[in-house]
Amino acid sequence: MPISTEEFNLLRDFIIKHSEIDVKPEKTYLLESRLTRMMVEMGATNFKEFYLNAQKDTSGKLRERIIDAMTTNETFWFRDTKPWGLMKETILPQLVELVRTRAKTRIRIWSAACSTGQEPYSIAMLLDDYISTKRPAGVTMDNFEILATDISPSVLFLANSGRYNQLAMSRGLSEEYKAKYFTTNGKIWEVSPALKKRITFKKFNLQDHPSALGSFEFILCRNVAIYFSDGFKKELFRRFHSVLNNPGLFLLGASESLVGYSSDFDLVEGQGAIFYKKK
Length: 279
Description:
The chain has eleven helices and ten strands. It is an alpha/beta fold. It has two domains: 66 residues, Chemotaxis Receptor Methyltransferase Cher, domain 1; 197 residues, 3-Layer(aba) Sandwich (Rossmann fold), CATH 3.40.50. The model has no long low-confidence stretch (mean pLDDT 93).
């Protein structure tokens, strides 16, 4: 039977409680389609029974599967194009200059909600290409640390493996970068070990305070805040602000904005895109 309003509300509240993902009523079909197979596998006869099973599961494994199923993992290399031009021409040169002038010895970059890894690998490729081309004095990839986190164990497994099929490789990746940073193994492409070692993948729920991850010079949290409630967005942006060192650069998705949610950042424009700088 289709999910009832009561069942939808129970599962929606459960998902919000454990991930802050806010499934709107108009997305009832999405919740139903993503959880039906799991409900059947668990032997539940309806969604309320499925919800009660999740509530009683002290191991947390069913909860994790539910949250994993509800996360949206749409991603591709250099997504949205313009922000990457901004990074190449403005953000990365600023960060590299901090190292060159010895204002910083290490730059930490956080790719939050990294999905299957295309974003952090794109950062690493862009940074490696910039350093190898410009050859700034005293600056190497060893001066940079990229942390990539996600709530979903399944996408983190794929990201950490650094293995992608032909379809994934065709989405936004240039032939130059494909040849420089990947090798083929049959129909599978693998990230080069030299690039892969530049990224640390870690399971992290954005509900938790990021202070446990340390502090950063640059945070990317793109195309994920749109799934959160307005109240949690405000809290999340406050938390990002608290773990940003100077210069404290922050990048959202192309359709996202801090307007109405945070006044702790200054907006900076360039290359047809925007980023934010900690006040």
